[in-house]
Automatic annotation (TrEMBL):
Protein name per Swiss-Prot or TrEMBL: Methyltransferase type 11 domain-containing protein
Recorded GO MF terms: S-adenosylmethionine-dependent methyltransferase activity
Domain Methyltransferase type: 37-133
PANTHER family in UniProt: 2-METHOXY-6-POLYPRENYL-1,4-BENZOQUINOL METHYLASE, MITOCHONDRIAL, METHYLTRANSFERASE
InterPro entries reported for this sequence: Methyltransf_11, SAM-dependent_MTases_sf
Native source organism of the sequence: Chrysophaeum taylorii
Gene3D superfamilies named among the record's database cross-references: Vaccinia Virus protein VP39
Annotated SUPFAM superfamilies: S-adenosyl-L-methionine-dependent methyltransferases
Amino acid sequence: MCFGAVSDAYFKSFRRHAPAWKALLEAVRTDESVRILDLASGPGESAKTMALAMPAAQITATDIEQAMVDKHAQYIGGLPNVESRVANAEDLSVFADGSFDAVTMCYGIMFVVDRPKTFAEIKRVLKPGGKLALTFWRESKISLLAREMLLELGRDDIQPFDSNKCGKEGMMDAELQAAGFEVVKNVDDAYDFGPYESIEDLYETAIVPFAFSLDGNPEKEELMAKAKFEFWKLAPIRYPNNTIPANKFRLTLASL
Ligand SMILES: C[S@@+](CC[C@H](N)C(=O)[O-])C[C@H]1O[C@@H](n2cnc3c(N)ncnc32)[C@H](O)[C@@H]1O
């Protein structure tokens, strides 16, 4: 799954996630000169939010994709306490053991292929007593739309990408405990996507999990065109005011 293809759309619409960045910041906020590794930083707002609120902290903002690192390096724009690097959350070998006080990851854990490996790597780069703060979807409506679109197009043979895959009650707690973390707290919240200025803007966001579901599928272009047609019929009824309401997320804070 590649965000590079949608990085412009994501960058344009990403500000809607402010409640998640705020929750992440509150989980790790300190006046001390800590080192924080932000994984899957995407366009960079989570790292920038932390860097501005914690001037004594040193933030390493990372993403698996060079396109996203380029975007966030430009967006963060020379803040003295942030460095940008390419890094895969599943293989943090570019970082030494015990080199961070905290690791943060906002809406990234659902994209890794091997979560136990990711948690083991995070554990390795954390200092003893280090913190891990994660946000993940419990009910992102655009993921439900991807499933619905595939059924609408008669394609129940295609597995929809599920952004909510980590949101089942207790699942993340159990995985973190199995990886040697103690779950300190879970905070649940929800926010709307939108209102967007136009259906076109709404569509650019809403279609992302559907597009991920078709990665590598030779029929992708044709199915995307059909889905766009369906979306234009559905959107005014389903998303009045170009808004996707009440997307539920969770912040989990764990420690070693
Ligand atoms: C939904 S975006 C979240 C971006 C950002 N944290 C935010 O809250 O705005 C997910 C990001 O995860 C990145 N990603 C996917 N797999 C990854 C992996 N294995 N390691 C690191 N980053 C990954 C993608 O490139 C993308 O930028």
